[in-house]
Design goal:
This protein has 489 residues and is an all-alpha fold.
């Protein structure tokens, strides 16, 4: 079977799975008058009410401080893990760290460290460390082996890292780290939805109360800081940014060692085991599976599979619009601005706004996931398209798209889609905190009810699902010869 035929069959398989999931997907609109609410939102965006400058600047500074510190710590930890990435246990550790979403890490750390700066920084740093370890490790493995083979025996890992591996891969590492900072800013903003004083804290409060004009200022601040990242993020300025972040928001917390010891030795232990009832462990787990784990897993997979197809369709529709081969300057700039906006906004925020407009359900979440991830893939494919060399007698319009461009870019499209599917699973779970009965809904409920044993069991299930999807996606990429993550990024 040829690679192109395999990619076609794989695409049809995902479409078929999404269609099979539709009967279990709740796409109902429960809002009384969504168009009226949408009009109010549009009016608020057009006529924002600006808050006190100190409030806006403080929220913006907190957002950047959490992101800078979390990404920096994640990069350092990830670099250390990448040194031993050939080891199976290091790969498993990295996979486990990134399998748990930042918001879930935050909920966990808040039980131990309270609503502190350290809890927010660690919530970003740990999953990002797992991601950095994978990317850096793959870059080191794919680097030119000749310089390392020329080294005499006896050089340690640290020496090889500093003088060989990092210099060879520095450009790719710097580019990817900059991208992760963009992700870190989005993650930092979303942490505000659970109480940390970032831009998301004000957005959640104002949007929930319907003060769209006041929320618009914080919305524009978030979009602006991400959209201008390539201009203000300069390598020589990063040390100053980090020092300023540490000064503004020191990553400290008051530690209650007795509380922490109880959390690990009692609170997260399944209830039957705390009383020595080993026979009651299976009924406890079976009840949890029937009431929460099973329904949560099913809804997570249904929403993720449908959102993946929506993501793919939007990406294929959007990527030609930013290419000079399909549009004029005005249309390209408008399309580029739209894609920048959609990929700058966190899925969690988009879904939250969608639920305010349409009511609770899977439809706002599906649209949020599709818009954000579709914009990311379309942006990457559009840049690929601008670098293609076409023959002089190439067709135009739809013929150019279907018979020249799409066949040449479909491999990259499949690779990006499989990478985003891993992200979709993580984000689908976390959107449960907005009321959709995915795994995140039950995890958030368990934390709210202080049933930490159930919360830990659900977190392990969620992490296991993410790790399984990661393995399956990697297997598909290898089977379809799509290259590694590092090669694509």
């Amino acid at each position: 079977m040829t690679s192109s035929a395999s990619m076609g069959r794989t695409s049809l398989l995902f479409v078929a799975l999404a269609l099979l999931c539709l009967p279990w997907a709740d796409f109902s609109i429960t809002a009384v008058d969504p168009w009226f609410e949408l009009g109010r939102l549009g009016a608020g965006l057009l006529l924002p009410a600006w808050p006190e400058p100190s409030v806006l600047l403080s929220a913006l500074a907190n957002t950047l401080a959490f992101a800078l510190q979390g990404v920096a710590q994640g990069a350092v930890l990830g670099l250390g893990l990448a040194c031993g990435y050939r080891s199976a246990w290091v790969r498993r550790l990295a996979a486990g760290l990134r399998a748990v979403h930042e918001l879930f890490w935050a909920l966990l750390f808040m039980q131990l460290l309270g609503l502190s700066a350290l809890a927010g920084v660690l919530a970003i740093a740990l999953p990002y460390a797992g991601t950095f370890a994978k990317i850096y490790g793959e870059l080191f493995e794919e680097a030119d082996p000749a310089p390392e083979q020329a080294l005499p025996a006896g050089f340690g890992r640290l020496t090889r890292l500093i003088y060989l591996q990092v210099p060879l891969c520095w450009r790719q590492m710097a580019t990817y780290t900059g991208y992760r900072l963009e992700c870190g800013i989005r993650s930092s903003a979303v942490l505000g939805f659970i109480g940390l004083p970032t831009l998301g804290y004000h957005l959640e409060s104002l949007l929930r109360q319907g003060y769209y004009d006041e929320a618009a200022a914080f919305f524009y601040a978030l979009v602006l800081i991400i959209a201008t990242l390539r201009w203000w993020l300069r390598g020589r300025l990063v040390p100053f940014y980090l020092l300023a972040a540490l000064w503004w928001l020191p990553p400290v917390a008051s530690l209650n060692w007795a509380l922490m010891a109880r959390f690990f030795t009692e609170d997260i232990i399944p209830a039957p085991l705390r009383s020595g009832d080993w026979a009651g462990l299976w009924p406890w787990w079976w009840s949890l599976w029937q009431q929460q784990v099973g329904p949560g897993l099913a809804n997570t997979l249904v929403l993720a599979l449908v959102s993946l197809v929506v993501t793919g369709v939007l990406a294929l529709l959007w990527f030609p619009t930013i290419s000079r081969r399909f549009g004029n300057g005005v249309s390209r700039r408008a399309s580029h601005g739209w894609l920048v906006l959609m990929r700058s906004l966190p899925e969690y925020l988009l879904a939250f706004v969608g639920m305010l407009l349409l009511g609770p359900g899977m439809l706002p979440a599906m649209l949020a996931l599709g818009l954000h991830n579709g914009a990311i893939i379309a942006h990457l494919l559009g840049h690929h398209l601008n670098t293609l060399s076409l023959r002089e007698d190439a067709p135009h319009g739809l013929n150019l798209y279907f018979f020249e461009v799409l066949p040449r870019l479909y491999r990259a499209f499949m690779a990006y889609s499989l990478y985003r599917f891993e992200n979709l699973i993580r984000e689908t779970a976390i959107l449960g905190m907005l009321g959709i009965p995915t795994l995140g809904f039950f995890i958030d409920s368990a934390f709210s009810e202080f049933r930490f044993d159930r919360a830990m069991a659900l977190l392990l299930v969620c992490a296991g699902l993410n790790m399984l999807v990661d393995v399956l996606a990697r297997h598909l990429r290898q089977r379809l010869h799509l290259g590694s993550r590092a090669e694509v990024l």
